[in-house]
Amino acid sequence: MGTTTFGREGEALARAYLERKGMTFAAGNFKRLHGEIDLIMEEGRTLVFVEVKTRRSLRYGTPAEAVTPVKQRHLRWCAEVYCAEHRIEGRPLRFDVVEVLALPGAPPRLRHIPNAF
After folding, report:
1. Reported pTM
2. Among 4, 6, 26, 73, which is least packed, fewest CB within 10 Å?
């Protein structure tokens, strides 16, 4: 399985997980020149921009450790563009990370990190 397919499967798992937690799906894979937002969810009035990191091992650290300060800046920029394009003003915004760890021979483990940055 390619990395894109693997990542998309992780995003689908993360979306279902967040929906079970009571969040509502608003959009997915919002792409612009300097980045992409994997999931945009709503929790009450709060608009939640979610970065999903899916990994097969911990060789290079936890999935959340891959959300570097540079990646965070790109996500913030994409969120600003999304809000401008959809004329969203005055709503609380939040940035979350969902880790999906799919170790061989084990069911995927998910960890939601609200307000990750």
Report:
1. 0.91
2. 4
